[in-house]
Amino acid sequence: MGELKQRNFYFDNAKFLLIVLVVLGHTISTPNFDAGHISQTIYRLIFLFHMPCFVFISGYFSKGDKKQKIGRLVYLYLACQTLYYLVQFIIDPGQAVIPQYIKPQLYLWYFLALIQWKILLPFWRRLKHPILVSVLVALAAGYDPNIDNTFNLSRMFAMMPFFLLGYYADEKHIVKLKELSPLLSLPFFAGAFLVLYFLDPNYPVPLFFYSEPYHEMGLTVWYACLYRLAALCISFVGILSFLCLVPSGKTSISPLGQRTVPVYVLHGYIEVGCILLMGEQMLSLGGKTLYLLIMMAAAFLLSTRAAEIITSPLFRPTWVFQKLKSRFSSA
C-alpha cells in the first residue's frame, strides 16, 4: 500500500483490522472447523465488505503512483506464486508441479488485481464518468463465461468500482467519514447479520467473492446483473460502515497495520500446516479453539517488526527494488 507525506494512522488501523478479518474469515471457513450456523453467518458477513474495503484503500493510495511501484507488485506476485509451487513440491515431492502464473493461487489474486488496476488507471482517468462506466463493465463482465479466474479477470472487472471510488476519494471525504458516529454502523452490521442468519444457506455466496461469471453461481436469468449490482451496493455500504468504526488516531495497532503483506501471504501456509498436523482433532471444540487462537496469534505476530525483518528477503529484497528504482528513474 502507498503512503502520503504524513503517516495516515486511520488507514493503518483500518488495514490491520481488515487483515485480522481476512485471517478470521479463512479460519472459520475451513471445512473441519465448521462450528455451526453462527460461524457461517460471521464468515458471510465478513465477505460482504472486507476485501472491497482493502480495494478501496488501495485505490485511495494509488494517487501519484510511480512505475516502480507497479514493478514491485509484479515482483511480489511472481515471487509469492513461485513460493506456492515450491511449498507444494516440498509437501508432496511425488506430485508433478508445473508452475503457471495466469491463475493466481491461494490469495494472490489481490496482487495481480492491483497490478491490473494500476496499469489501467490512465485509461479510466480519460473518461468523463469513470466510476459509472466501471460499474457497467462490472455488470456486463458477469455474463461472459470466459471471464473467470484466468488472469484474475472476473475480480479485476467486478471490483474495479471499489478501486476507483478510493482513487477519486479525497481527504475531505475521509475527514467527513471520520466525523461520523460509530453508531451509524450498527444498522448495517446488525441488519446484515440477521438477514444472513435467516437467509437460505444455499444462496450464492460467491456473489460477494466477485470471482465467477453469473452462470457458475446458478444465476442464469437475463437480469443476473442486478444481483451483482445489489452486491456492489451492499459492499459499498459495508465499506462506509466499517470505516466509521475505525479509530482515527495513532493506536497500538497502527504499526501493525503498516505490515499486512506478510500476514496476507503467509497465513494460508500456517492454516494448511494446522490442518495437516491437527487432523481430526480440529473436529472437537478444544481443537477448534486451539486452531482459532493459533491463527489469530499468527495475524498479530506476522504484523510485527521482527516478522518484517525476517520476511524482507522475500517481500522487500533490496537488490530487486534498487534495480527497479534505477530502471524507472532513468526511463
Describe the structure.
The protein is built from 15 helices and no strands. By secondary structure, it is mainly alpha-helical. It has one domain (9-329). Helix 1 (9-28) packs antiparallel against helix 3 (50-60) and helix 1 packs parallel to helix 12. It starts with 8 loop residues before the first helix and ends with a helix. The mean pLDDT is 90.
In DSSP terms (H or I, runs of 4 or more residues), the helix count works out at 15
DSSP summary, beta strand count: 0
* Biggest pleated-sheet summary: none
| Secondary structural class | mainly alpha
Instruction: Using the alpha-carbon principal axes, give the shape.
Output: globular
Count of separate structural domains: 1
Fraction of helical residues: 55-70%
Distance between the termini: 23 Å
Radius of gyration: 20 Å
The helix/strand series, from N terminus to C terminus, equals: HHHHHHHHHHHHHHH
Question: What share of residues are in beta strands?
Answer: under 5%
Low-confidence sequence ranges = none
Average pLDDT works out at: 90
